[in-house]
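Holo model, D-[(amino)carbonyl]phenylalanine. Inputs:
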Amino acid sequence: MSRQIIVASAQMGPIAKTEPRQSCVARMVDMLREAHGRGARLVVFPELALTSFFPRWMIEDKDELEAWYEEDLPSPATQPLFEAAAELAVGFYLGYAERVSEEGRIRHFNTSVLVGPDGKIIGKYRKVHLPGHDAPQPGRTFQHLEKRYFEPGNLGFPVFDGFGGRVGMMICNDRRWPEAYRVMGLQGVDLIALGYNTPVDHTGHTDIDSLTQFHNHLSMQAGAYQNASWVVGTAKCGREEGSMMVGQSVIIAPSGEIVAMASTLEDEVITAKADLDLGTRYRETIFDFARHREPDSYGLIVERKGAGDPI
Ligand code: ING
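Output:
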């Protein structure tokens, strides 16, 4: 029996600094309903989808900063999204800022949850690769303070059974690191869901920043192909509080082909029929890890002894 599932990427346009969570949730419920109308069973929302991308600001006041995080999900503000999922039997990926009491202290993570068609949380992931800085940088129009506001994730890269296959999660910068895909590829992942908030001026180097959109798709297409997995990458995009972020959300097949792409910088639903067995066919031929990978032959990572020495 083929494992086909219609998946959706629910791209979001800008979220204003003062926009209430309830407004963001209403926008997401509208898109969940639209995706359901097209037969989708899994909808991928962006990273930090409940608020504006607050790591772009230096926030000194502790109470002001804590107001950006969620405690447990579903919270009162997000309950309508979980209820709509159960009503329509459509699961979703949601990125949000998590505050949690763990190991005897309050901790903060850039987090995503995978929610099943019954509206119950299947699994959680916490962003490992935090870009930017832990202190404000001089000369930047917008800061990028994820290292100040979040800890690196402590859940690894788990893969969950759901939607007829094996589903994993990443968040934004994770998609630039091949290890993130490979750890899930070694667990037989069929589909990786990820959300992103990607400013077009992140490094300040014009030659690099002008390739932001190319690098966005390059990272996800390569990761999908090299690990025989579908990838659904969903943007929060457009000019958000003055910061321009890339859109072009995509659904990518295990072949590495982009099979659907958003064409606006606003709330936009794209869908595609994902045959999860396409990944299986790549894993039984080109990317049969058991037959073709040679981890024992990759050699040791030699500590860098000094400039010019081999690494
Ligand atoms: N944002 C960006 C990301 O897509 C970035 C940071 C932008 C890194 C452009 C490199 C180039 O990785 C988040 N939130 O990770």
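The longest helix spans residues 21-37. The chain has a mean pLDDT of 96.
Archived with the compound record.
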